[in-house]
Amino acid sequence: MKNFIFHNPVRIVFGKEIIPTLSSYMARNEKVLLLYGKGSILNNGIYDQVTQSLKQAGITWKDFAGIKPNPTLSQVRSAIAICRQENIKAVVAVGGGSVIDAGKAIAAGACFDGDVWDGFLKKISWPQALPLYVVLTISATGSEMNSAAVVTNEETQAKMSFYSPGTFPKVSFLDPTLQYTLPEKQTIYGAMDMMAHVLEFYFNGTPDTDVQDYFSEGLMKTIMKHLDIVLNHPKNYESRAQLVWAGTLALNGLNAAGRDKGDFSSHRIGHALSACYDLPHAETLSIVMPAWMRYVYKQDIPQFARFAREVFGLQGSENDLASKGVQAFQDWVRKLGLPLSCVDVGIRMDAIPSLANNPSIPFPLGTLKPMQSEDVESILRLSNY
Amino acid sequence: MKNFIFHNPVRIVFGKEIIPTLSSYMARNEKVLLLYGKGSILNNGIYDQVTQSLKQAGITWKDFAGIKPNPTLSQVRSAIAICRQENIKAVVAVGGGSVIDAGKAIAAGACFDGDVWDGFLKKISWPQALPLYVVLTISATGSEMNSAAVVTNEETQAKMSFYSPGTFPKVSFLDPTLQYTLPEKQTIYGAMDMMAHVLEFYFNGTPDTDVQDYFSEGLMKTIMKHLDIVLNHPKNYESRAQLVWAGTLALNGLNAAGRDKGDFSSHRIGHALSACYDLPHAETLSIVMPAWMRYVYKQDIPQFARFAREVFGLQGSENDLASKGVQAFQDWVRKLGLPLSCVDVGIRMDAIPSLANNPSIPFPLGTLKPMQSEDVESILRLSNY
């Protein structure tokens, strides 16, 4: 196990009928930015629940709607300008990972005089941010319980991340019933993203991480089991609740604690794909991750064999198991109807070299097998077989 | 899954050679109370490491040594008086659960004009406390990452607990090497306590808690596996590290989140035993817990069967499995050489009725099977078979 520092001060309020308590955690009589996506919350009652609670504490709000699935720097900059003009004191992000991530960048950028992108470029650090409150409507990114944000700079096509002690949400409200009416595809995308988060810490090459491995395996078994149930019974509260909480636990720092940094190769390569093709984040993962696993599994046969045994209940020799585990994961992705190759989403083979050199990808890439752009090219080509 | 609120702001600093960083998390040039037990830290170098770090930040300290294994109210009151006299600004607790628990009570009591015992009697709440820094020397209670404290009132023989938002340690330092020289018995006691914490949430009767159950099972498998290694190789860093981190995770709120309150029957009955006989905490658990499990397992056959299957790898019908799991746990306790009955520690049978009515035990007791004093009597008698 590696030395580590773990600190996660996010307060989680979880369960049914919790949204009315939102404003009880906030300062009274202030003005907040109410951030959301393309507006489904206006139709499904969530907007009304949130604003009803705000009103009860004398809190006023300025709407900022239309945050895009891969949130853009220009939207973040616009929202920061509004925060300054309107003397905004807190941000309420109602949505999934994109809205939450935008919320973090806005909350931090509003407390800083310069340009917010400098934070993504690590030119500055942001110890301070406006308080951020989250109402989660799509479980996927885990952003509701960590301090990281990912934003795309449309001008440079770079999708970059930052994290800061100041950008942990102050309180995140997780009501599984809010996800009853999600399109099936969104639920699948969410589960794919959760699995990727778990796997990127699970396959990072740190030895002697039993308690972390059991935790990861438990999350993966929970996600796969309860996704199956939810796809057949979208309003099954218990399984929705399991998916929601597993998704949050997948990226709240516990998987990371004691391990080396996660091997985020798949996320990084995926970021390049979505920066250039505006693909859904989860589809970039379903394309890259099985191919990445196949490309690197020989670096850590015991861990890939453990994966096959513990997560899929497979048996066999260590070498066989390691390969079978990758196959089982790919089969799971296929069963969900997610794309598995660049070709599946219309990316031409001659675009691969340029993708492999996208500025979203820092080289050397990854920890299990440190890679260069040639390796990324190989993985993207491998996805087509 | 039940509705829940989860919030744990403790910063964990984990690993080798971390003690020199202690004072970097503290305010400079202040005076702190340095709390410890019977003084082994004076001989094994830990005291020197801690005070060296304090000196580097200009921090002065007042020693308070001799905190007892079941910390007493009179010691806590004395230490609070010193904090007031000496204008103490923070508490540094160097030790195991008893020292940490005493530290919490002192840190809270020092910020409150009345008598600290009123907090244990729930007559007052303590939102504030002095900042508490922990250097963990024995993994067992999990107190290093929660806000709860247990103290014994010698006058009334009541062993009571409290928790408060103010009494989370600010930073806890977990260096597994500090436990290399623990007496074997202390390591065993610690593992017994950890297992009890996990089991009391695992067997509390809440349905639909897959992700929590997998987490609990992973902790138990980690504890049993790495205890075995550490007993043969006390200086095996990796296994010490696994035990330390599993012990902390066992009672940091994650096991509780989404479950009903834990069923702390075994701890409560155990508190009565140690209040009257000053037994080691873990020995009270090894006596009570297997008997409690045997007394209640029919309340939740599926969960006891799952326990047998997932933790001990047993197979069979559900009913058989449930009983076999209890037996396997009892066998594990026996293998460790821990007492399994009142008789083993010299408690006479005619003392049992009085024990079953000790003020440490609140009735009705427990959630899986709510119990009265007759049930407690039955469990204590059952321990003798």
What are the segments of chain A in which pLDDT stays under 50 over at least 5 consecutive residues?
Answer: none
What sequence of helices (H) and strands (E) makes up the elements of chain A? EEHHEHEHHEEEEHHHHHHHHH
CATH topology type of the largest domain in chain A: Dehydroquinate synthase-like, alpha domain
- Structural shape of chain A: globular
Account of the protein in words:
2 copies of one chain form a homodimer. With 385 residues, chain A is α/β, with parallel strands linked by helices. Chain A has 2 domains: 11-178, Rossmann fold, CATH 3.40.50.1970; 181-382, Dehydroquinate synthase-like - alpha domain (Dehydroquinate synthase-like, alpha domain). Helix content of chain A is 45%, strand content 12%. Chain A has 14 helices and 8 strands. Chain A has helices spanning 40-43, 46-56, 73-85, 97-109, 117-120, 184-202, 210-232, 237-249, 265-277, 281-296, 301-312, 318-335, 352-355, 373-382, and strands at residues 4-14, 31-35, 60-64, 90-95, 132-136, 148-153, 158-163, 171-174. In chain A, strands 1-8-5-4-2-3 form a 6-stranded parallel β-sheet, sandwiched between helices. In chain A, a hairpin with a 4-residue loop joins strand 6 (148-153) and strand 7 (158-163). The model of chain A has no long low-confidence stretch (mean pLDDT 95). Chains A and B meet through strand 1, helix 7 and helix 8 of A and strand 1, helix 7 and helix 8 of B.
